[in-house]
């Protein structure tokens, strides 16, 4: 589904300094896979996810989505692919403070003006799956940190994405919230959807079908 071919990503700091976040990474994530990306802090995990999710462009190399070279597509096209095919979960839930739970979940629909009445039904269904059906009208400050994470998870599913890209989705949450999140990934994956999850927690990585290990921006191991 997503192919990274000889990807290098270099960030510039000031005029002189360059950070080589990824070096010559070639990886394929197949449709229906559940892949965990692990490695020490600074090893390039988030950068890997940003390449796979078309959030950033590589400095060198080619990114293919469904076989199509998307590396140099215009921003508008890349945004369209992300909005239609991908669901993102970041470490910080970044909910809109003035919108309630359900409104936050429906935001990707309202923002792209693709909202339909059936979205509300699906939004409520997903919120029920993550145990928040009684908190539809709470504002973010009226939710615990773990609940806010689960709202962000429900929001990522509102478009029924073909691929979920999650960056440390269970970082700093308790065991219960972490298990709700990972169980939902597994459920989504069991329906044939692709999941790419960055984590530093090897126990959670073991839930995935494959583990990609990075070290210093390079591929260290790729284990089934
Ligand atoms: N926008 C940026 N500008 C400059 N350097 C960056 C940028 N994003 C990442 N880096 C650098 O690239 C390297 C890889 O960062 P990345 O966030 O991908 O690592 P990571 O494995 O996800 O780390 P962590 O586990 O701490 O989140 C690091 O050295 C980081 O400082």
UniProtKB/TrEMBL annotation:
SUPFAM superfamilies: P-loop containing nucleoside triphosphate hydrolases (SSF52540). The keyword rRNA-binding does not apply. Keywords: ATP-binding, Nucleotide-binding, Transport. Pfam families: ABC_tran. Residues 2-223 form the ABC transporter domain. InterPro entries: AAA+_ATPase, ABC_transporter-like_ATP-bd, ABC_transporter-like_CS, ABC_transpr_LolD-like, MacB-like_ATP-bd, P-loop_NTPase. GO terms for cellular component: membrane protein complex; plasma membrane. GO terms for molecular function: ATP binding; ATP hydrolysis activity; transmembrane transporter activity. Transmembrane segments: none annotated. Signal peptide: none annotated. SMART domains: AAA (SM00382). It comes from the Bacteria. This is ABC transporter, ATP-binding protein. It comes from Aneurinibacillus aneurinilyticus ATCC 12856.
């Amino acid at each position: 589904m997503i192919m990274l071919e000889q990807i290098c990503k270099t960030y510039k700091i000031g005029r002189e300094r360059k950070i080589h976040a990824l070096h010559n990474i070639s990886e394929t994530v197949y449709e229906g896979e559940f892949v965990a990306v692990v490695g020490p802090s600074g090893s390039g995990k988030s950068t890997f996810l940003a390449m796979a999710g078309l959030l950033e462009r590589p400095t060198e190399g080619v990114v293919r989505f469904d076989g199509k070279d998307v590396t140099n597509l215009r921003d508008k096209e890349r945004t369209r692919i992300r909005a239609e095919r991908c669901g993102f979960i970041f470490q910080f839930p970044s909910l809109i403070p003035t919108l309630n739970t359900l409104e936050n979940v429906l935001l990707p629909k309202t923002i792209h003006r693709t909202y339909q009445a059936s979205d509300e039904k699906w939004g409520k269904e997903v919120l029920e799956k993550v145990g928040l059906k009684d908190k539809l009208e709470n504002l973010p400050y009226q939710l615990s940190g773990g609940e806010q994470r689960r709202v962000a998870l429900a929001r990522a599913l509102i478009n029924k994405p073909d691929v979920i890209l999650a960056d440390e989705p269970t970082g700093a949450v308790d065991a219960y919230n972490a298990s709700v999140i990972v169980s939902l990934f597994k459920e989504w994956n069991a329906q044939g959807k692709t999941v790419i999850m960055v984590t530093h927690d090897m126990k959670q990585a073991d839930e995935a079908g494959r583990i990609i290990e990075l070290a210093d921006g390079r591929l260290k191991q790729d284990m089934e």
